[in-house]
Amino acid sequence: MAFNALVPTLEVKNMDDTILFYESHLDFKCIDREEDAWAFIQKDDISIMLSSRFNEGKQPKPVFTGGLYIYVDDIDVIWQILKDKVTISYPIENFEYGMREFAIYDCNGYRIQFGQELEIN
User: Contact at 8 Å (CB) between 69 and 103?
Assistant: First the structure.
């Protein structure tokens, strides 16, 4: 039995604003969409499903305590592109576990982390 892909699904407040955020800041492309019900966005090997709110009456705000962690190959360039355009969760830093990373928030408050392995000499 094989697992072939993981596609996180994020509930969003406004589909148009969310697609615009991911396209304009992170270079994703919306490759499929059904009005405001759902959208499928993709960049390289990263896919994310966006959906309208489920059970909004029972839970007025989406709850997601984790983050989306994206491995990248040129973290410093991505940091320079994003640092003045988005809300920063934590700035770029080298961590003792061997990663250079930073995190931002998307327009819905979801944390997106970017990381690159440090070269160890």
Answer: no
